[in-house]
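Supplementary notes for students who missed Thursday's class. We covered one full example, reproduced here. Read the sequence, then the structure, then the short commentary at the end.
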Amino acid sequence: MYGNLPPAVRYLIVGAGIHGLSTAWQLAAQLRASGLGDGSDVVVLDKTGVGAGASGIACGVIRNNYFQPAMRRLMAHSVSVWESDPSDFAYHPVGYMQISHEAMHADVASIYEQQQAIGYPSTFVEGASQCQAYMAGMFDDWQAEGITSILHEHRGGYAHNLAALQGLAAKVEAAGVRILDGVRVTGLDLAGGAVEAVQTDQGGSAASSSWSRPARGPVTCGRCSTCRSGSASATAPVDCTRIDRCGATGSCRRAPSRSTRARSLTGPATRRRSCTSTPTLPCTTRRASS
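Structure (token representation):
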């Protein structure tokens, strides 16, 4: 997981916790599925290492038990991902139970109704005597008092935090993503509401000590012979029919979309000087001053 900063990167993710690694894993899969790239277009940076932050000390509970209705389908999907590879994710599908006193009864009932609406399997038990009997059926020495509702989710469970992250990191790297440990991000350069450069304690180039990307998108496709040969330059226009890969400057047949913007680590930002709104007409880019 160690290595030098690459000369260019299309997608940069800061942080190798559960969110950063999940993003990298899914992004690599989507790029490959869409034919727009693969994991080699993605780099993950972490100042220490995988799971060194909050993800590495999280309790590891996997559940669909949140009060926000908008979370319901998202959490059901998340549980499905954990279930897809219990071994690599160090996941134990033992279910999840919320055992509550009366003050929480209405809220827990609402969660149950939302779960049933999407077909998420759970059992809701109401009433003090019914709750006592339900729990005693699983734990014969159950003694808790004042329990008036139980929401038993039959999916979900728990995962060992660091082991799960290491398993996820292995999947990320198997997809071709580079995870670079020991690289601290020290700042972001913003221009026009977009990140124009990412600065690290290791720099990105001798000249700027930052990673710079084109502020208005790449201008070559990475698939034609010119792009693949590396002969594209900042001064020689490149006639490409697709815009989704590298960050050299030139002319293009189609304006690049926000989702296909590249990052260049080796020089000043490239800014689009003029561009038509008609996709079939060329837009011209030139090197801007740093």
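Commentary. Residues 214-287 form one domain. The chain has three domains: 8-56+162-183, 61-158, 214-287. If anything here is unclear, bring it to office hours.
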